């Protein structure tokens, strides 16, 4: 029997961790090993256990555990190391992470090579068997001219694989980013954006069309519109989904009712990912176990999704 399927059916988390997996939706600042960071700082970073009532609660959590402690270069690099440490512990063999463009000046002295080496050095030290896909991150609330100025340091650097837009989905119209995404496409980057976590199914379609996206981070709202489901399936747009964070942010009522099941069975390409491990206690192996135990997806379906994520390399 397939080792991964067998591990799921046994409910054996440690065996699930031994099976190769992809994590294509991981914000490294919150994506690291809790144990490693406690050893480094002495601080026990506690995850949330019940759904948050607002994003303000998430911001409060960040202020409590992250903002002051990790707000300088060496501690930023420690978060990168912690993410590779976590990836190795979790059996993640394909990891897509990267720094927000504003972080280049804030933590890496506007030295793009220092930033790249922070990731590649940590990967070699802590997870040499994990393939790194380095990502350029954009905060949606930032003015376009500011982002364009920051991006001038990134364009032309072949170390980067993809670009991602995240933050408040309602901060400004998605069309404002068309120029940036046209340039990113010409640079050969994989085009991604966070959409459809808080917005609507139609927001997902518009974002894919306006920015010519290859992948959507979240995109779960698409499950409630058959036309958008067909659009995603027909155009082979991948949704990189993070089930536990969707529940703890109040976007989905339960794991059993998570829309990933409907999306997958409707032919949409989906992957299962961690999002923010430190706050949501959501490493990839736990996500697979939770979805299986809730009856959302079968062991065979989950294995198909796992293999699909790995095949994306």
Description:
This protein is α/β, with parallel strands linked by helices and 313 residues long. It has 16 helices and eight strands. It has helices spanning 3-10, 13-18, 34-41, 55-67, 73-89, 101-107, 112-126, 144-151, 178-186, 201-211, 226-234, 243-248, 260-265, 277-280, 284-293, 299-311, and strands at residues 21-23, 92-100, 131-139, 160-166, 190-195, 215-218, 238-241, 270-272. Strands 1-2-3-4-5-6-7-8 form an eight-stranded parallel beta sheet. α11 (226-234) links the parallel β6 (215-218) and β7 (238-241). The longest helix has 17 residues, at 73-89. The two termini are 25 Å apart. The model has no long low-confidence stretch (mean pLDDT 96).
Which regions contain 5 or more consecutive residues with pLDDT less than 50? none
Number of discrete helical segments = 16
Helix content: 40-55%
- Report the portion of residues in β strands: 5-15%
Number of strands: 8
Q: Return the structural class.
A: alpha/beta
N-to-C SSE series? HHEHHHEHHEHEHEHEHEHHEHHH
Which overall shape is indicated by the principal axes computed on the Cα atoms? globular
Gyration radius over CA: 18 Å
If you average the pLDDT, what whole number results?
96
Largest sheet: 8 strands, parallel
* Strand adjacency order, main sheet: 1-2-3-4-5-6-7-8
Span from first to last CA?
25 Å
């Amino acid at each position: 029997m397939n080792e991964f399927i067998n591990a799921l059916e046994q409910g054996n988390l440690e065996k699930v961790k031994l099976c190769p997996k992809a994590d294509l939706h991981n914000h490294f600042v919150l994506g690291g090993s809790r144990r490693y960071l406690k050893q480094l700082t002495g601080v026990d970073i506690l995850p949330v256990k019940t759904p948050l009532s607002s994003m303000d609660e998430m911001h409060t959590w960040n202020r409590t555990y992250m903002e002051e402690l990790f707000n300088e270069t060496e501690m930023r690099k420690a978060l990168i190391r912690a993410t590779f440490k976590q990836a190795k512990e979790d059996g993640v063999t394909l990891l897509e992470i990267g720094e927000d463009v504003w972080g280049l000046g804030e933590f890496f002295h506007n030295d793009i090579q220092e930033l790249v080496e922070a990731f590649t050095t940590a990967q070699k030290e802590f997870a040499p068997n994990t393939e790194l896909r380095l990502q350029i991150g954009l905060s949606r609330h930032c003015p376009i001219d500011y982002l364009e100025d920051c991006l001038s340091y990134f364009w032309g650097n072949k170390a980067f694989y993809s670009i991602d837009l995240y933050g408040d989905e309602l901060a400004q119209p998605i069309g404002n980013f068309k120029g940036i995404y046209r340039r990113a496409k010409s640079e050969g980057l994989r085009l991604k954006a966070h959409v459809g976590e808080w917005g609507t199914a139609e927001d997902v379609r518009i974002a894919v069309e306006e920015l010519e996206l290859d992948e959507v981070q979240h995109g779960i709202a698409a499950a409630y519109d058959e036309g958008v489901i067909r659009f995603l399936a027909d155009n082979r747009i991948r949704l990189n989904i993070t089930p536990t964070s969707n529940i703890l942010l109040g976007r989905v009522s339960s794991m059993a009712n998570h829309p990933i099941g409907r999306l997958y069975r409707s032919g949409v390409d989906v992957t299962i990912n961690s999002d923010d491990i430190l706050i949501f206690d959501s490493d990839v192996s736990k996500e697979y176990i939770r979805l299986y135990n809730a009856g959302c997806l079968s062991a065979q379906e989950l294995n198909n999704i796992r293999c699909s994520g790995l095949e994306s390399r």
